[in-house]
Write a structure and sequence with these properties.
Number of domains: 2
Number of helices: 4
CATH topology of the largest domain: Arc Repressor Mutant, subunit A
Helix content: 55-70%
CATH class of the largest domain: Mainly Alpha
Largest sheet: 3 strands, antiparallel
Strand order of the largest sheet: 1-3-2
Number of strands: 3
Shape: elongated
Distance between the termini: 61 Å
Order of helices and strands: HEHHEEH
Strand content: 5-15%
Radius of gyration: 25 Å
């Protein structure tokens, strides 16, 4: 016959549920902060050359995607930039 261990908690069932919910909420908050931090880190602007390296494509392909509205771009003076987060979103969704 197998013996089972019995755990005795000094808390009522309601107190255990509250403690469990607090633990879950705190872990969700930690994960949410990590997610937000990741999103913020990827809000950097990439140059044409950096974007070409990231996507492993030619300058002509990148220009065509920009011209056709596939990949949004931003101009600052004479330079063109792309948002890292938007590139990742486009790769995931492939719209």
């Amino acid at each position: 016959m197998e013996s089972k261990q019995v755990y005795i908690y000094p808390y009522s069932q309601e107190e255990l549920i509250k403690k469990l919910l607090k633990t879950i909420e705190s872990r969700i908050e930690v994960l949410d902060k990590k997610r937000k931090k990741t999103v913020i880190e990827h809000e950097e602007l990439l140059t044409v050359e950096e974007t070409m390296k990231l996507l492993k494509c030619s300058k002509q392909a990148l220009w065509n995607w920009r011209k056709n509205g596939i990949l949004p771009s931003y101009r600052l003076g004479n330079r063109v930039y792309y948002k890292h987060s938007e590139i990742l979103t486009k790769l995931i969704k492939q719209e």
